[in-house]
Design a protein that fits this description.
Oligomer: homotrimer
Structural class of chain A: alpha/beta
Radius of gyration of chain A: 27 Å
CATH architecture of the largest domain in chain A: 3 Solenoid
Distance between the termini of chain A: 95 Å
CATH class of the largest domain in chain A: Mainly Beta
Number of strands of chain A: 39
Chain lengths: 345, 345, 345
């Protein structure tokens, strides 16, 4: 890996460089960094580690002073760290050679861009399209007529079923499933009659799907995840759900069928959302919440059933006092009975 | 895809046809349908879309009138829709050619029915059996002596471990695991000593297992899911669980070891059931419930810990009032103290 | 499979043999056992099955008497059963032949021990190492420079990403993912900027990872699961989590990023733990708990938010009484108002 100059990183982060313009070998935490390495400080509570760090260069908040170090002062040092990390990562992880591995089964009617890479034991079915610079690692499965845009990264053991559409810059982590059948049945007496799920899944540009997450195809029409939304691992998205742009959903959460969610959703881990709801923009669901009602924009939900955050926390606090309050109630009953008795006489 | 006559669909749905017996090209929602297409109305709240729809033929509830349309009146239009959708789906998705893909590794001692299809990068081990018209898509793994009946559909990236038995018409979605080891250990001091899980999994006819769901094999004897039961995605079934016929379990639910459940279970999403319980027939567990006790037939459970539905809802309503009621208690304490003071004097 | 002498099993279990030293053909439950088979009694509530069992030899608690049977009396019959089961299992499941299946893609720079087995459709990338007697079943993926120790068992459809380190005796069940990217982003306006996850995952000796579980790699530095810890299915471990030795985590649980947990953790199913906590040794989290605070050693947590077990149960009991107590409060309000009225006059 080539070294990267501190000035190159400062330019990337729109930061102000002070001190010598060193060649930096890599990026580490403040405690772990060795001489020649870049580190960063974003959370002020870690500032205590600054005097001890062996890092030669540090991305710091504006106005931070550290003796004998090259500093890159940034308005948002965490964002600066992210961009520097991307640069180091690209340098140390060159793209694989383009081309189709001989041990891949690619349909004659599939269209693989010459700049794409298809790994061993990938299966690519009839009419599928793989865009420029996209990497499909094997073993994996790309179904018939699925279309994958440019600069995507499909990790091993992924299944993308027929007709699904992925934009550009989409990342699908190991074991994830895109386009599995929605869970839809009619009943004939006690028996379930399967409703063929004939829709698809659309993942817009820059969507990222975590390991072993599952996105069901629509019953009729698509399940849609819009630009820039990120899903963590083991997340379930049911048929015909729509999720807006720039959302983030943490692990083990699930959204039931046909729920429509706006932009910039933030969902903690293990959240459940029932079906057929409408959720506005800029909604935050704290970890472990259960969302049972349609929710207007700019709401923070907490608890199960999910309530506005402050109300939920107040209810939690009240429940916490309940055992003692039951004693108070018991005591009050006695005292009121005594008072009633006294007033009778 | 060939067109299908309205009369053929009416016969399939046991519906009454009125209007011209059109050739229909496909099936869509009322809003999305183009001329020449079939649509359906089952939820009366969507009846407002009837006058505007471009569909040429509509499956409707008995007695519905729509001008200038071919109608198929059905007692259960949703069931009619399901059956029509299955017919269109079969017509537009012909079965793949039978045969074993050259890039599949099939043990000499495995028995593959000549009408079955085995896809690329499928691994089929010693003594496994694949029944008539069953499709095993690759990459996937079928372990030694596993037996898969007729007309099954095994999607890519599925693992079916040794000795597991699948009936006919079983569907296993992408990434699901059938027959993983149950989570069983003895302790020797602090250390866990693994108990080999020597049972298997039995999935009866028409069972469907959702994407990335996991069904553990029994410790001794089988884990059993009976005829017609459907599992959604990311569901976990532990060792030696028994689930009756015609059940449905929504995503991210889990059932702990050795719990026995009757027929026609309905389980919402994110439900947990602890181990060694007995659950009767026709039990409904609403989404997000925690089932902690054995439960008689015909019970609807809600909440965590799960309580009979009406009780659970009443407790929720009471908890909702709690912050205000704590103020009332506080106020009562003061007023009772004042009364006591007054009566002293 | 060869028979095993009762005396061999008694020695293995450090048990006392009484009765004829029979050749035993296998191991079954008390009810299912046929003549010639070994069975066991550990839970005294199953002692009623003893007089009826057809088993020829039984592992029993010290001092148990059963007429006409060969007995192996053990201090811990469940542990004895585990060890006997392991012996029978090894006898009936001989290790596969060592060697690399011709249908596996192994990088020239990978080092595969000659005693290891690599199955069909395994992909093993640059610089990966597979230790002695380890079995990698295919289809599966072992990333660049990943190192897998001796006597490991990697089931099909597993993904182990680059740089991850597995000790000896590690078992990874079907569909599990080791080393997926942690869920880490900085924000630039509304957009998420991905932070490359450049750490890895370290699984120490005897760790077991359940089917379709996901262990994310660290952002910087490792995610670490220490010796002997066992994970059930569909468990999520986020980046930079540390879990101590000899822990057990049941299905559908999740631990958020950077949480540090001590030794001998016991976690029931569907538990959630938020990020950046410190959890001591010997902590027990009962099923369905939500852990929201750092927790000292030797704590048993229950409920959501998780509270010390006895407190959690007491709160549950109080909540259970709440609807009736609200009536009492309502009644008290009336009675106090009447008393106040009386005292006014």
């Amino acid at each position: 890996m080539r070294s990267i100059k501190a000035s190159e990183i400062a330019a990337l982060c729109q930061g102000r460089l002070s001190g010598p313009d060193l060649e930096l070998k890599g990026l580490s935490g403040l405690k772990e960094a060795r001489p020649g390495f870049l580190s960063f400080l974003s959370n002020p509570k870690y500032a205590v580690a600054l005097p001890e760090t062996k890092a030669s260069c540090i991305i710091v908040p504006l106005g931070t002073e550290v003796k004998d170090k090259t500093l890159i002062e940034c308005k948002d040092p965490y964002l600066g760290f992210a961009k520097a990390a991307q640069l180091f990562f690209r340098e140390s992880n060159p793209k694989p050679e383009p081309g189709i591995h001989p041990a891949a089964v690619v349909s004659d009617s599939a269209e693989i861009d010459p700049s794409a890479t298809v790994g061993p034991y990938a299966v690519i079915e009839n009419g599928a399209e793989i865009g420029p610079r996209t990497i499909v690692m094997g073993p994996s499965f790309i179904g018939a007529r699925a279309k994958i845009g440019s600069d995507c990264l499909i990790y091993p053991n992924v299944s993308i079923r027929e007709e699904c559409l992925l934009g550009s810059g989409v990342i699908i982590h190991c074991g994830a499933v895109v386009g599995s059948d929605g869970f839809g049945y009619a009943r004939e007496g006690a028996k379930y009659v399967k409703i063929p799920q004939t829709g698809n899944v659309i993942l817009e540009d820059e969507v990222e799907i975590g390991a072993n997450s599952t996105i069901d195809r629509g019953a009729l029409g698509p399940t849609l995840i819009k630009r820039g939304t990120k899903l963590d691992n083991l997340v379930h998205i049911a048929h015909n759900v729509v999720i807006g742009e720039d959302g983030a959903i943490a692990a083990l959460s699930g959204i039931a069928g046909s729920t429509i969610i706006g932009d910039r959703l933030i969902m903690g881990g293990k959240v459940g959302v029932i079906g057929h709801l409408e959720i506005g923009d800029d909604v935050i669901c704290l970890a472990y919440s259960g969302v049972t009602k349609s929710t207007p924009s700019r709401t923070m939900l907490y608890g199960n059933p999910g309530r506005p955050h402050m109300r939920g926390k107040r209810i939690d606090a009240a429940v916490d006092l309940l055992p003692e309050k039951l004693k108070v109630i018991h005591d009050l009953e006695k005292r009121v009975a005594e008072l009633e008795e006294k007033l009778k006489t």
